[in-house]
Structures are given as structure tokens and as C-alpha cells.
Design brief:
This protein is mainly β and 295 residues long. The chain is 4% helix and 36% strand.
């Protein structure tokens, strides 16, 4: 923040304003390159396997697009990573018409409960196929529809100091912290510099069964993703849970100090009463508390 001296900032090599959301202050490369990620992902979403895999087509990344290959046209419809399903229509090319085209579908490593339906038929469990390219094929040499349900579960990943991060599917979730946003500079094309300060507690220990997180964490949908899928005001998915405030966990050098060891609430008086905690996708937040101790 602008009011923080460089000597009291954890990111001392970046100066006192390194925590500001700034066009000019810190990361000019991000401004210049922000458009580069999407076309690169789209370009690599559909591939043509080599002869060792039998040729055909391969869906390598899950995103909405239509791609034409020498073997077939591939159309992908999905709200992934916010949605849990994807529909793939593979239409053999004129050269392959009447022949069955091999279709390879990437099943994410976390999708151990994924299912597949072909042309609206019964769903088959893809048990053991997560983390692989699942082999399928067009049917009858004509356009074939593949419907994938990833069936993601809420899971916890362990990080430094035995903290945990809430994850579901391809999305990392972070505790929603109330925020006050002040515009400090206005540029052309609606670009701004912002100061963001917290308006609600951040020092939270998560009340959760580490071996069964779904017992105390609940996933829900608020709607479809909008034009800005990681908006902080129109958030399509969320996870709710319970936490306890850890009063001894304080700010140091203008950032959260090292989190207490889990369980952070082992002794009477270590933590406050239970409070509801809302988790949202990491990209939807300005202030992020993602790695939390457990209570």
C-alpha cells in the first residue's frame, strides 16, 4: 500500500508499492502479455496423435472451441473449469468418412470418478483412467457425441507449515476476505491503479476433517460464468465451510505472519468461536488467504 514504508514491507526488493494493483508500478510485462495465454491454450487444445497412438484426434485441453484437423472436425462445448461436464462432437473429415476415427480424451488426474457417455447412451465409469488419454472412437464413421462428466470432489492439498488449500476440480479456492478498494490513478482504456485493504478477518483456522473434507465443506453454483469469469462480483461457484479466528496470528511486515502449526486450536483459548467461511476461485479475489491452518 502507498502508506507502507519500504523498510516495513515483506517484498522489500520491490519497494513500498509492491502490493498495489498497478498498471505501471510493478508488472508491465503482465499488461503487455495478458492477451497471449488464451490463443496459446486454444491452439494446443486439440491435437493429432502420431501413428503410435493410431492417429485420429485428441482433446488435450478442456475449453470451448471448434478445430478442424485432417482426420475430423472437433467441437467442444463446456464451462470448464467452472462446469463439471464437456460435450465433444467429432465429425470425420471427407477423407475419413465412413471410417471410424480414433478419439483420445484427456481425463484429468483428479477426475477419478469421471464418466463417459457416447451418443447419449449409458454412462460408463472411467475408473483408473484419470491422468491418461482415454481411447474412444467415432461410431459408424459419422459424427459422434462424447459427453464427459468429471465428477470432481472437494480435496485438500497440504503446503508449508502443514497448512491446507481447498481445491475442487481444476480450481484452487481461497477464503473470501472483505475488501475496500480505492482508485489511486486512472489511465486510458478503463485501466486503474488500486489500493485494496481488508475489511474482515483473515486469520482463520479451517474446521475440517482432513481425511474427508466433503463432510464439512459444501460446493454450490451461483450461475454461469460471465464475460469476466474470474470477476469478484459475479462469481459462478463457491465452497462454504467453517473456521475459527486465531488471535495470535498477526500481521508482520505488512503481510500475514507465518501461520500457526495445525491444529491451531488445540488448546482452550487459542481460537475464537466458529464462524462461516466462504471460499471462491483464487482468481476472483484481490486479497487472498489460500493456505490456512486447520483448527
Amino acid at each position: 500500500m502507498a502508506s507502507i514504508s519500504e523498510s516495513d514491507h515483506i517484498f522489500i526488493t520491490d519497494g513500498a508499492d509492491s502490493a498495489r494493483f498497478s498498471l505501471e508500478g510493478n508488472f508491465g510485462c503482465c499488461t503487455a502479455n495478458m492477451h497471449a495465454g488464451w490463443p496459446k491454450a486454444s491452439y494446443r487444445a486439440v491435437g493429432v496423435p502420431n501413428s503410435a497412438l493410431g492417429g485420429g484426434v485428441a482433446v488435450l485441453m478442456w475449453l470451448p472451441q471448434t478445430a478442424t484437423t485432417p482426420n475430423a472436425t472437433v467441437s467442444i462445448t463446456t464451462d470448464y473449469p467452472f462446469g463439471d461436464t464437456a460435450t465433444v462432437v467429432v465429425t470425420p473429415s471427407a477423407a475419413a468418412l465412413g471410417k471410424d476415427v480414433p478419439v483420445w480424451l484427456r481425463i484429468p488426474s483428479w477426475a477419478n470418478l469421471a464418466t463417459l457417455s457416447i451418443n447419449g447412451g449409458a454412462s460408463q465409469a472411467l475408473t483408473g483412467s484419470n491422468g491418461t488419454l482415454f481411447p474412444a472412437s467415432t461410431v459408424g464413421g459419422v459424427a459422434t457425441t462424447f459427453t464427459i462428466n468429471f465428477n470432481p470432489e472437494i480435496r485438500l492439498e497440504t503446503y508449508a507449515s502443514n497448512t491446507v488449500t481447498v481445491v475442487r476440480g481444476a480450481l484452487v479456492y481461497t477464503a473470501w476476505i472483505g475488501q475496500n478498494i480505492t482508485v489511486t490513478h486512472q489511465y486510458e482504456y478503463q485501466s486503474k491503479d488500486l489500493d485494496v485493504t481488508a475489511t474482515s478477518p483473515w486469520n482463520i483456522a479451517l474446521v475440517v476433517d482432513r481425511s474427508n473434507p466433503s463432510a464439512s465443506l459444501s460446493f454450490s453454483r451461483n450461475g454461469l460464468p460471465g464475460p469476466q469469469p474470474f470477476s469478484s462480483t459475479n462469481i459462478p461457484v463457491q465452497i462454504t465451510g467453517t473456521g475459527r479466528l486465531v488471535s495470535s496470528w498477526v500481521v508482520k511486515h505488512s503481510a500475514a505472519d507465518t501461520p500457526p502449526a495445525s491444529p491451531a486450536c488445540a488448546n482452550a483459548g487459542d481460537c475464537g468461536d466458529e464462524i462461516p467461511v466462504l471460499f471462491v476461485p483464487f482468481g476472483s479475489t484481490h486479497i487472498r488467504m489460500t493456505c490456512l491452518p486447520t483448527a
